[in-house]
Amino acid sequence: MSTGELNIPSTVKDPHYRYKMPKIQIATQGSGNGIKTNWINLPEVSNALKVPLLYPIKFIARELGSNTETKSNSYLINGSHDAEQMQKLLDKFIKKYVLCPKCHLPEIHGKVRVGKKNEIKSTCRSCGATCKLDSEHSFASYIRSEPPPYEKEAEYSTGKKDEKKMDSKLKKNIKECCLNLASVINDDEKYIEKNVGEIKKFIAKYNFNLECKFYCFSFAIFPDEIYTKTFLKRLPLIKYFIENESENKPEEALYNLLIGFIDKIFSRQKGENQKYVSSVLYYLYDKDILKEDFWLKYLNGTIQEKYSSMFRIEEGEKKMKEAAKDFSNWIENGPYEGEEENTNEKKEEKKEEKEEEKKEEKKEEEEKKEEKDEDDNEEKGKKKGKKKKGKKKKEKEKEEKEKKEKEKKEKEKKEEVKEETKEEVKEEKKEEKKEEEEINIDDI
Ligand SMILES: [Zn+2]
Question: Residue 283: pLDDT above 90?
């Protein structure tokens, strides 16, 4: 962590936490009764919190019982206040109006609104929960008078130019499925089939056709921080889902997956992640999910003609093609012409990824080997036991029987303990993995 950065909220101590904000920077100006605190980096902080510019200063001023003054790009609070105290109040603001009350992630931006009874409500982009935010605090009245921008249905847009119309119930179902499906995906699940089973079970409730199914799947499977380890980890799941759940129409399924992706990047996130589009496509290509032939047909419009989709938005498609230029060049010209530098970069990335995979595989192999060795030793032990038994058989059969019983019991006990430690190690590993995942690729 660089020194000027804090987690959102700063009470989270994980240095690899993906949500960061700059530390509050202030300067005191004036003197006597006219002394004021100038919040120098308010725009940066508000930007990091994804809240309207004046929200943090208005909240803190209310907490301090002071007034604010904003003129010519300076943001002032009456009186002299220290940064530490303000940081604490900012954390309070974050807990009340930036974090999802359910999962505690700062993922409610664009989804905060004033409800019917003047309640402040939020819907979480991460866990899908709709919650009530503190509506009693005096700052709530400020939200009511200056509500934050609310992202309406843009991301579930129906593609007005398309003749097909969605009825309101289907629209509602799609929205609900999109928002909640993400929480079904289990990134710790080892078996793709199990994960797919859960996803299928969840989607089945809605009785969707293929395009709705893959649109929703796409919405959930691409993480919000698009270019992360979570995404890389989910690639096999995407591949499996397209190959096995597309009712023998993998091309159409992929097309709707792509539309969901476009919607996410360009409608919902307003393009902030578009620089990763080519890289994401490259990985889809690398895993044989997106095929060269498909992409060429997509570029010339053949795919769109063949499978009309009610989710298609031409505007988004244009932006997508623009953002995917590097990838398209690479597909059209081959890896050794034109965009050579870029390709090398990608190769480098791929190499690193492969190496990491290899390392992990090796580790696993070693672990397996160790287990096997242990088993082998046990096997040898048993054989020895048998031999002994043969020798002693004639002499002390009764005694031997008792001894065997005892040994058996001891062995069982040992195995129990072994099982327990194994479980513990597994748990630990899981946690380690989780931590690793939080790291954005860009941070490495
Ligand atoms: Zn949440």
Answer: yes
Supply the pTM of this predicted model. Answer: 0.43
Q: Are the beta carbons of 201 and 191 closer than 8 angstroms? A: no
Q: Furthest-apart CA pair in the chain: how many Å?
A: 106
pLDDT of residue 393: 46
Instruction: Please state the length of the chain.
Output: 444
- Preceding omega of 9 cis (within 30 degrees of 0): yes
Q: Where are the beta strands (DSSP E) in 11-167?
A: 20-22, 26-29, 36-39, 68-71, 74-78, 112-114, 120-123, 130-132
Which stretch of DSSP H or E encloses residue 6? Answer: strand 5-7
**In the structure encoding, which two tokens stand for residue 151, read together?**
């992202």
Give the pLDDT confidence of 137-187 residue by residue, as tens digits: 999 999 999 999 887 654 444 444 343 456 778 888 898 898 888 888 888
Ligand 1 mean position, distance from CA 124 (Å): 4
Distance, C-alpha 123 to centroid of its chain: 16
Secondary structure class of 312 (helix, strand, coil): coil
User: What is the rounded CA–CA span in Å between residue 246 and residue 109?
Assistant: 33
Helix crossing, 325-333 with 277-286: angle to 10°?
40
**Residue 268 vs residues 127, 154, 271, 284: alpha-carbon distances, Å:** 16, 7, 8, 21
Q: Could you tell me the distance, in angstroms and rounded to a whole number, from the CA of residue 185 to the centre of ligand 1?
A: 15
pLDDT surpasses 90 at 58: yes
pLDDT band at 380 (very low <50, low <70, confident <90, very high): very low
Query: What is the distance in A from the centroid of ligand 1 to the CA of 85?
Result: 28
Q: How far is residue 181's CA from residue 163's CA, in Å, rounded to a whole number?
A: 28
Measured in Å, residue 176 CA sits from the centre of ligand 1 at 14
End-to-end CA distance of the chain: 12
User: What is the CA(76)–ligand 1 centre distance, in A?
Assistant: 33
